[in-house]
Amino acid sequence: MIVKYISFAFLAFLVNTGVFHTADLLLQGIINSDNFSILIFKGDDIRFWLAYGMGLFAGFVLKYFLDKKFVFSDQRETRKKEVKKVLLYALMSIITTIILTLVVAGFKAYVSRERAKDVGLIIGLLIGYTTKFFLDKKFVFTQKKEVPA
């Protein structure tokens, strides 16, 4: 179960990163600082956050369905219960993203090495995904598996 979870986390990371870079590249000709701004945000910032959001969304959707089906063997339920499950999964993702961000920021601020933020990212991802696995198991995918008699 853990090996699948880690493998799917890595796959979701690759999808997230791939979608982010692809969207950023495609949006460069459309949104840039020279031709686009909203209030105080310049086009490059807007392009970054749009691409970032697209990557997060793609990774989130992929990881949810892989975890649901292959890690937790969760059965499909009523639409209302599925929506609740997705929202809980999203909440657990937000909690662990906060953990990740704090670890990365801490490394970046307090470790003066060139690769500190990368080390912080790896440690933050390990802590975040480990925490998320147990949160998902306890709060999101709570169906008990039926054991054949």
What does this structure look like?
With 149 residues, the chain is mainly α. It folds into 2 domains: 1-71, no CATH class; 76-143. Helices cover 75% and strands 3% of the residues. It is built from 4 helices and 2 strands; from the N terminus they run H-E-E-H-H-H. A two-stranded antiparallel ribbon has the order 1-2. Helix 3 (79-110) runs antiparallel to helix 4 (116-140). The chain is globular.
Q: What does the secondary structure layout of this molecule look like, with pairings?
A:
Blueprint: H1 2-27, E1 37-38, E2 41-42, H2 43-71, H3 79-110, H4 116-140
Antiparallel strand pairs: 1-2
What is the domain tally? 2
Global Rg: 18 Å
Residue share in β-strands: under 5%
> H/E order of the elements?
HEEHHH
Estimate the global geometry from the Cα principal axes.
globular
The overall pLDDT average reads 83
Number of helices: 4
Span between N and C termini? 23 Å
Tell me about the largest β-sheet. 2 strands, antiparallel
Largest sheet, spatial ordering of strands: 1-2
* Poorly predicted tracts of residues: none
Residue share in helices? over 70%
